[in-house]
Amino acid sequence: MGDGGVGTALRFRDFRYIWFADLASIAGDQLARVALAVLVYGRTRSALAATVTYALTFLPALLGGVLLSWVADRFRRREVMVVTDLLRAVLVAAMAIPGLSLLVVCGLLVIVVLLGSPFTAARSALLPDVLPGDHYERGLALVQITGQSAQLAGFAGGGLLVAALSPPVALLGNAGTFLLSAALVRFGVADRPAPAATADRREGGTVAVLGAIAGDRRRRALVLLAWLVGWYVVPESLAAPYADQLGAGPAAVGVLMAADPLGSVLGAWLFTRFVPAPVRGRLVGVLAVGAGLPLVACVFRPDLPVTLVLWGLSGMLATAYLVQTQAEFVRATVETERGRAVGVAAAGIIAAQGLAVLAGGLLAEWTDPATAIAIAGSAGVLLCGAVAVAWHRATTA
């Protein structure tokens, strides 16, 4: 990449190690998701049980973001990352024990996902200290690009690896990625002191941070824009019925599901590579609104190639605005509250995506998949437009 590309963030040693550790964990997690789905379905022959198990790899993060993100503001953030990685390695290895009750496996899985919240909060709070100035946005974009790529590779190759290795061995592989991540962070990232003590370190700390975000016009607009990205993930959840509506067949489902992640990779790279840093903040609202417009066009029931372009364009614009929204939000938050604020914001994104996907499913039942996606895009356009106006007023006041 050129000097202005996202790869410039890799010049910073601490970020390189954090990035490698994160990449290893994501790849391992995707492998574990496939392994768990195969393991549970193989034992129960129940699609519902496999789906519930898959949902458990995401949903506890909502609770963890609210209840556990304070850890990243109380202890040294490098140590938070190392300890949570080690704990997750032990728990995932335990899940690979032959004959272990599925109820116990699911219980261990919930704890593993919960522990991911303080890790993510600590990593996100640490990045602004690791990457100075404009390199912070480039680092976020690189994390987004490689994260999406690792997820695609994990899903694409996970099934083959699980078939070759067996689910328990694949789970042990995931435990190994957590150990690798812990080692990379511990020995590659400089030690930094815990955030300075504040009067807000008590049981109501997270509630206090929520109140502080709600009372800050800039951060309130930013977090709302981030949460509204949920409307733009609805197409991915409706890929199967949409493909059926087009008469494209099952083979098109995977291609449709890949359109948004591929657009995300392109959007993160283009935005940080070609848009000057002073301009990015001003484009947040425009991009947020623009991300919904391609989905509105689905009301015309375009054929498969056109749909792929529309969904990819939506993912590209949504990721571009989300990267900048996250950067602006973290910069606007004082260092001693950063972990909790990021944890709450991330939990809200997960909740918003879940609610939007549920709404999209209900709309598809009442209408049809194409209309439901168009309505979701319209909701995103209208709501993001209103919040974008609030963001503009907050930054120009």
TrEMBL record:
CDD domains named among the record's database cross-references: MFS_MefA_like
Highest rank taxon of the organism: Bacteria
Bilayer disposition of the protein: Multi-pass membrane protein
Transmembrane segments: 48-71, 91-115, 222-243, 249-271, 283-302, 308-330, 342-364, 370-391
Major localization listed first in the record, in broad terms: membrane
Subcellular location: Cell membrane
Keywords: Cell membrane, Membrane, Transmembrane, Transmembrane helix
UniProt protein name: MFS transporter
Source species: Actinophytocola gossypii
Lineage, broadest ranks: Bacteria, Bacillati, Actinomycetota, Actinomycetes, Pseudonocardiales
